């Protein structure tokens, strides 16, 4: 499976390592090429592209036209949302998942645009409640 991952921070790296072990074709995009140096040794089957994830030329260079999955996992909600919309609407990527920190925005973009969102804030709050024994 060809997977484009936007963001090589902790979340992007963790998912890339897991997906890389399953022999997927990975392309990782990040604004900061220095972050690649930290993960290149463990992700030998990945391609790394430095650039803006909302730039169509960068996405095309990453092979978005043939991607099966697009993951927007940067720390920037706006960039994640915008690039996810591009992947879904312009390039018809089959599976687009976007990380959004703001729970209100995550719900709105799920409801209004049909994006598949993951909200870390909600996940952490749910885990804390679970560990406290609260429903």
Features:
135 residues, alpha/beta, Rossmann fold, 6-stranded parallel sheet, 6 helices
Q: Any overview of this molecule?
A:
- The chain is α/β, with parallel strands linked by helices and 135 residues long.
- It has a single domain, classed as NAD(P)-binding Rossmann-like Domain (Rossmann fold, 3-Layer(aba) Sandwich).
- Helices cover 45% and strands 21% of the residues.
- The chain contains six helices and six strands.
- Strand 5 (95-99), helix 5 and strand 6 form a beta-alpha-beta unit.
- The mean pLDDT is 91.
Short description:
By secondary structure, the protein is of the alpha/beta class.
Order of helices and strands: EHEHEHEHEHEH
Strand content: 15-25%
Helix content: 40-55%
Structure class: alpha/beta
Regions with little confidence, pLDDT below 50 for 5+ residues: none
Q: Name the average pLDDT.
A: 91
CATH superfamily: NAD(P)-binding Rossmann-like Domain
DSSP summary, beta strand count? 6
Q: State the distance separating the first and last CA atoms.
A: 37 Å
H/I helix tally: 6
Spatial strand sequence of the major β-sheet = 3-2-1-4-5-6
Main beta-sheet strand count, sense and barrel state: 6 strands, parallel
Q: Based on the structure given, which CATH architecture is correct?
A: 3-Layer(aba) Sandwich
CATH topology (level 3) name: Rossmann fold
Rg value: 15 Å
For the record, the CATH class is: Alpha Beta
Shape: globular
């Amino acid at each position: 499976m060809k997977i484009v991952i936007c963001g090589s921070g902790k979340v992007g790296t963790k998912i890339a390592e897991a997906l890389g072990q399953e022999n997927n074709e990975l392309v990782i995009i990040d604004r900061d090429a220095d972050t690649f140096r930290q993960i290149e040794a463990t992700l030998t089957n990945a391609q790394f592209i430095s650039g803006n994830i909302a730039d169509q030329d960068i996405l095309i260079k990453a092979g978005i036209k043939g991607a099966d999955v697009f993951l927007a996992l940067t720390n920037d909600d706006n960039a994640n949302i915008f690039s996810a919309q591009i992947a879904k609407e312009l390039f018809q990527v089959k599976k687009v998942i976007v990380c959004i920190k703001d729970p209100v925005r995550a719900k709105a973009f799920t409801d209004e645009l049909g994006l598949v969102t993951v909200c870390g804030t909600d996940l952490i709050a749910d885990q804390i409640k679970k560990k406290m024994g609260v429903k």
